């Protein structure tokens, strides 16, 4: 009888356990730096392939309206994570924003001077006598004087026209300018979408300008309160990037599957393929995505202080701006 009662009790316990619902996935909001384009493919791919779900994360991806606005949203906790231009985040942190970069994805700068391939402008010397379209006070225009210094160009060697982001694009598209300052995987693809013509970028990084670009940021209080979730999010995002690198077209297609008006498959794919080489430097080529070196970040801070309007007190403690502590360890 005792054995029978014990057996029934055990069965009841297992039955009860079997109907307890699995714990719900954690809702996480990731806000992008801008409207969706090829650079963002890994996030959509990771969601589509269940990589975030496997880490217990229900990911919502929101488009942004600029890195500064996304940084503000993360500081205010209206977004859990942001994908932003890290130098832009640095300015906010120095002014008191409670933000930290939990992973730096683009460790080589995408900044470029670009024009149609047919114009045959392929090196700094070719910029002489040309017209360059810029957007005053944006990140590229702030670093432009350093590019000129590195390449021996002078402001008098070319003509400059100024306007907002769309005006700058239109100037090249309509032939009012020969080049514009833009990101290799962003503006170049917008021009190609509009004209069908290929663009050639003269990359700042090829001329000794070593600085990081986009990365994942979070509110410092959120990170402290949700350390396990931050680790799971960075693990999933690292895996998503690694998987997307192996399937660029599939990754680009995941953008369109989520947002049918998100662009054209050809340029989304090409834009993402142009992004992949920016993930690593010679020092991090054997490391997994997001693991930035102290030297790369220090170099970026120094450049931003000298040319980018960053307050010099950022040089006191560059390590306060970023951490690799929440990244997955070991191989992919």
Structure description:
The structure is a single chain. The protein is of the alpha/beta class and 332 residues long. Helices cover 42% and strands 16% of the residues. It has 13 helices and ten strands. Helix 6 links the parallel strand 6 and strand 7.
Itemize the secondary structure elements and their pairings.
Elements: H1 2-19, E1 26-31, H2 41-48, H3 51-54, E2 57-62, H4 67-75, E3 81-85, H5 86-94, E4 99-104, E5 111-116, E6 131-134, H6 139-151, E7 159-162, H7 165-173, E8 179-183, H8 187-195, E9 199-203, E10 214-219, H9 220-225, H10 227-245, H11 248-258, H12 265-275, H13 294-307
Parallel strand pairs: 1-2, 1-3, 6-7, 6-8
Antiparallel strand pairs: 3-10, 4-10, 5-8, 5-9
Helix pairs in contact: 2-10, 2-11, 4-5, 8-12, 11-12
